[in-house]
Amino acid sequence: MWDQNFEDLLRGFLPFIGADEPLTEDAPLRDLGLDSLGIVELLAALEGGYDVRFQDDALGRETFETPGVLWKVLSGLLTEQAA
Fold first, then answer.
1. How far is 8 from 6, CA to CA, in rounded Å?
2. Is 56 part of any domain?
3. Could you give the CA distance from residue 17 to residue 24 in angstroms, rounded to a whole number?
4. For residue 51, is it within any domain?
C-alpha cells in the first residue's frame, strides 16, 4: 500500500479518524474531516515531505478523494522523479 510517512502525514489532516482505526485505501477523506484548507496544507506537507511538486492536473478534488487515489498520484510523482 503506502509507506508509514504518508499515513502519518495524512492522519494529521483527518480529525474524524481515531488513532486506533485503520485507514483504508477507499476511505472518503472528506468524511474523515479533510476540508479545502486541509487539502492545501496536506499538499504542502506532501510536497515538502517527499520533495515533489504536484502538477496542475493533479490538483483536482478527485486526487484527494481517498488515500488510495492520493497515494497513486504521489507514487507516480516519485517514480517520475527517480527516472
1. 5
2. yes
3. 11
4. yes
CATH code of 45's domain: 1.10.1200.10
Amino acid (1-letter code) at residue 31: D
- Expressed as residue numbers, the domain containing 74 is 4-12+26-82
Number of domains making up the chain: 1
**Which set of grid coordinates corresponds to residue 55?**
502538477
Comparing CA positions, the residue from 42, 83, 79, 80 lying closest to residue 61 is 42
CB 70 within 8 A of CB 49: no
Q: Which pTM was predicted?
A: 0.94
pLDDT, tens digit, 9 for 90 and up, residues 21-76: 999 999 999 999 999 999 999 999 999 999 999 988 888 899 999 999 999 999 99
In this structure, what C-alpha cell is assigned to residue 4? 508509514
Which secondary-structure segment (H or E) carries 79? helix 67-82
Residue 11 makes CB contacts below 8 A (sequence gap 6+) with: 17, 19, 23
